[in-house]
Amino acid sequence: MPLNPRLVKESFSVVEPVAEKAAGYFYGRLFTQCPHMRGMFPPGMEVQRDRLFNALTRVVWMLDSPEGLASYLAQLGRDHRKYGVSPEHYGAVGSALLATIRHFAAEIWTDEIEAAWTEAYAMAAKIMIDAAAAETTPPWWLAEVTDHEPRTRDIAVLTLRPSQRLDFVPGQYVTVQTARWPRVWRRFSIANAPRPDGSLRLHVRAVPGGWVSTALVRHTRIGDQLLLGPPVGTMTPPETDRDLLCVAGGTGLAPLKAVIEHVIASGARPNIHLLFGVRRACDLYDIPDLARMEAAFPWLRVVPVVSDDPAYDGMRGRLPDVVERFHSWADHEAYVCGPPAMVNETVRRLQSSGVPLARIHRDPVQSEA
Ligand SMILES: NC(=O)C1=CN([C@@H]2O[C@H](COP(=O)(O)OP(=O)(O)OC[C@H]3O[C@@H](n4cnc5c(N)ncnc54)[C@H](O)[C@@H]3O)[C@@H](O)[C@H]2O)C=CC1
């Protein structure tokens, strides 16, 4: 039977408003049916629940764009190897998912909707299973912390050396697990373009209640080992030599720095504006490094922007406002990364000021605590 994206989307839109409940129901079904699968997940399931729905939402809304969907699902399949997922698990997940959607969309449920979900899930599972089976890189990497620089009270920049070669594209992120929190994986963007020594830099803010981020900022030392999942993400460098606008909110700077490093190393000479927004001047955690990049590449202009510090003697304001009043970006390729609300608003303003959506790069998946 052919895919029926419309029926899947319509029924999913009934479940979306009760996503949290639905995710709880889904895991309840899954673990009752397959108690041994509980051990594959961390003790606290809150982030996992969000993740399930973020991924599901993305898949459902991409059903009409098969190419983008296939590449997203393939990345997801490769990434799931680090949890020890094997093809048998997909059947159990599929039946728990179907039971969940059926339960929460009961009012509109029909045989056609059931068939549409069955078909869509079978297609998605096949892409994930095939991609995982075809992958030759490790499911996860051990990485040694070779440097740990506290930059502010809450932010540290870590340098890691993976024990095996880890290929990635600038702008991608990895998931990280610390010895302190087994089975808890959190995403952090790689903050550099690939280097000859294979090292990776991460920008980490310890957020309240953030298990992994707090462990990385406050309890991690040089010589410690971390686990890294496969690199994922689609916010990769531009394929044109158009001028670039990069809008970074806080540690959302990390992937944009990687993209800029890549563009500089490629030998292209576009003008690059990097607007680096923080709340207070003391949060400008990477200025010395950015100033070095600026000095070495005259086409790069770094503009620190501070939103909540009236005493700051430089550019002040909210990033979306500053972007809008700066000048026209209509001819630029734009990259936006940071807190989701900031990203959404900046993208909207760029669009309404004439930057086509196809030229605005963002990663719908944000990093977590
Ligand atoms: N660490 C990493 O590797 C990555 C982090 N991120 C995300 O970047 C964000 C960084 O957070 P923080 O450093 O705590 O940044 P923050 O909360 O201190 O804010 C940074 C900037 O965004 C602006 N901003 C915040 N909320 C806004 C809103 N609602 N509307 C308009 N502007 C707003 C602030 O004014 C400031 O200029 C997190 O959401 C994180 O998930 C994204 C990708 C990679």
Automatic annotation (TrEMBL):
Enzyme Commission number: 1.14.12.17
FAD-binding FR-type domain segment(s): 138-238
Keyword terms: 2Fe-2S, Heme, Iron, Iron-sulfur, Metal-binding, NAD, NADP, Oxygen transport, Transport
Entry-linked InterPro entries: Cbr1-like_FAD-bd_dom, FAD-bd_FR_type, Flavoprot_Pyr_Nucl_cyt_Rdtase, FNR_nucleotide-bd, Globin, Globin-like_sf, Globin/Proto, MRET
Name of this protein: nitric oxide dioxygenase
Keyword Nucleotide-binding: no
Domain Globin: 1-133
Top-level taxon of the source organism: Bacteria
Family label: In the C-terminal section; belongs to the flavoprotein pyridine nucleotide cytochrome reductase family. Belongs to the globin family.
Catalytic activity: 2 nitric oxide + NADH + 2 O2 = 2 nitrate + NAD(+) + H(+); 2 nitric oxide + NADPH + 2 O2 = 2 nitrate + NADP(+) + H(+)
Keyword Transcription regulation in record: no
Cofactor section: heme b; FAD
